User: Fold this.
Amino acid sequence: MPVSFLTPQQRATYGRYAGPPTADELTRYYHLNDDDLTQVMSCRGEHNRLGFALQLTTVRYLGTFLKDPVAVPPSVVETLARQLGLEVNRDALQPYQSSKQRWEHVAKIREHYGYSDLTEPRVGFRLTRWLYGLCWTGTERPSKLFERATAWLLAHKILLPGCSTLEGFVVRLRSRVETRLWRLLGRGITAEQRKRLEQLLIVPEGSRGSWLDELRSGPTRVSGPALRAAIERLKSVRELGITLPAAARIPQSRIAALARFASRAKVTLITRMPPTRRLATLAAFVHGLEATAQDDALEVLELLLHELFDEAEKADQRARLRTLKDLDGAAAMLADVGRVVLDPALPDNGIRRRIFETIPQPLLQCAVQNVDALIRPPEDVFYKELDARYAAVRRYLPAVLKHVRFEANPAGKPVVAAYDWLRDSLQGPKPAKGAPQEVITTAWQRHVFRKDRTLDLHAYTFCVLDQLLTALRRRDAFAKPSWRYADPRANLLGESEWEAMRPIVCRTLGLSAQPQPVLDALRAELD
Assistant:
């Protein structure tokens, strides 16, 4: 990492006035309380009093004493002069610049108000520990860490060191954190795994890219072959067998940052890295790539299933439009029958004879058959059109069932149980017994169960895929590892953890830790 990372503007404004303070800043930093006024009034001469006040408020605002103590914005002088009851006269402050009193005032302010230097061991240790925690748990840029460190020094009354001194301090601390991160990431890597990771950077003969480039390339189309390629990519990542040591407790944000860098960097750049950093970068990339590859496969599967059911529904609507003429004829014939039945002039014992006189029995039977074939029950699942596409689904479904496993919350457990049953049934010579039936909705029952109550495997497969698509959208079913399809409850606090954190969270949000007062206030507001 370069030692110099600050912009010219940051260097120019460090420990100096970048402009006049705002009204809020004047109120916060330049108000003299009773103790301040006591210290100011102990000085002899108006120029010494105003100079002491300028140095005191400047160190509060900037965190350092200026080389020229009177080189402050006019609004600062006016604010302090008004509080001290003095006339604003900057020329009267000129003797203060070269007087010995200004240095005595600096020592007095440091002693009375408790300002210290970064060079003190206790101060340096506290800042190192605090900044080390920020570096270890976050991925902020060096310039942002510099600003955070400056704010910490101001808050703890530590005089700002030189710009280059603090800049080098941040660089050295980040280097320590990164060295520790690389060492921990490479701790559990065996020699065989190291060899596999190094092979990711090699470009095979006759190929235009390395294996790393191929693994970084996700699916770009929504199709059965693209889904099978995504599954093969997931399988290749898992075969590398890279697992990070659980005892290391490495923050996921740091691993994700390294993985993002490896996913964008050129192979030549990774190759030129030091061995420790290169190994850690590749290990983090492969560790995060399993979740990314699984997400890519699930996203293609979700889009493919959505397209499958959408096209089947549209095909069913087109087929239904083609049969409307036959349905209209059969409905008209049955309407004639209804009018005969509703005629009050006909005796009950003559209705049947009159119907057959009006409409021959064979035609009436044909009309009833047409109506039975053409009408659609509520929430129809257009299974006929889906079954025509079973061969296409069968090409990619076994690979999905074999390599993608799901977990679920209580609402999604029937879907996952049926999904696992499909895996065993489609891989064997014949379907397994005891198919889970909780997943079968009312709309699917007439298709899944034949007249003899046996199971139609095709219909059951589409029923499970339909419910799986719904469960994925509702996040009732989730995969591990994953970024987009992960368990939404994973980061929620448990009961004991929440009880411990609830007072802090409620205090931060300005709420009561007890719900009843909040509910009473809302009830009163509603009334």
